[in-house]
Amino acid sequence: MTSPHPRQRGSRELWLDAAYNTLVTDGIEAVKVMGLAKRLNLSRTGFYWFFADLSDLHLALIDRWESRNTGTLVARCDRPAPTICEALFNVMDCWLDPSLFDARLDLAIRNWARVDGALQARLDDADARRIAALTRMFARHGFTPEQAQVRSLTVIYTQIGYISMQVEESRPERLARVQHYVEMFAGMAPAPEDVRRFMARHL
């Protein structure tokens, strides 16, 4: 087989980004080597310089999701904070900054997992890691184990609901509601200075 010119091969990230864009817009069924090659205007054989096969590409997509979404969320939960409200605002950053948490990718993975048992197992594990991180966060701020677990479940289920229902609201609407979500999750109103710091990060 003749080796394609590097420009015809593209790069690993280029193929992965194209697969990501296809996944979040059209679902996993549309992620095919030929379709990606046409989308990129590259040689189909170039794909195999970077991935052994389509399953290898699938694993790379899943790894990207786990790192970007679960990894970032766990890190945010573990970030030191003087109060539970400040800790929750650190988590809420994820819901407002796509570079921290990619909601479209999370939805695509959840839809994909419905037809892929192995992925469903990884999704279940990721959700368990997210819940455990939130539970630890609440526990550090004095909540009992039972309270910490239920509050962490409330945070996760609320966000999964947002993602699954594809809720549409303007950014100002979402920002205005965050402090009230924090109050509901924490059981206390956030201090005005905490609200101002959070808003300053997103305005």
TrEMBL record:
HTH tetR-type domain sequence ranges: 9-69
Query: Which of UniProt's keywords are assigned here?
Result: DNA-binding
DNA-binding region(s), chain positions: 32-51
InterPro entries the UniProt entry points to: Homeodomain-like_sf, HTH_TetR
An example Gene Ontology molecular-function term: DNA binding
Alphabetical list of Gene3D superfamilies matching this protein: Tetracycline Repressor, domain 2
Specify the protein name. Answer: TetR/AcrR family transcriptional regulator
Tell me if DNA-binding is a UniProt keyword of this record. yes
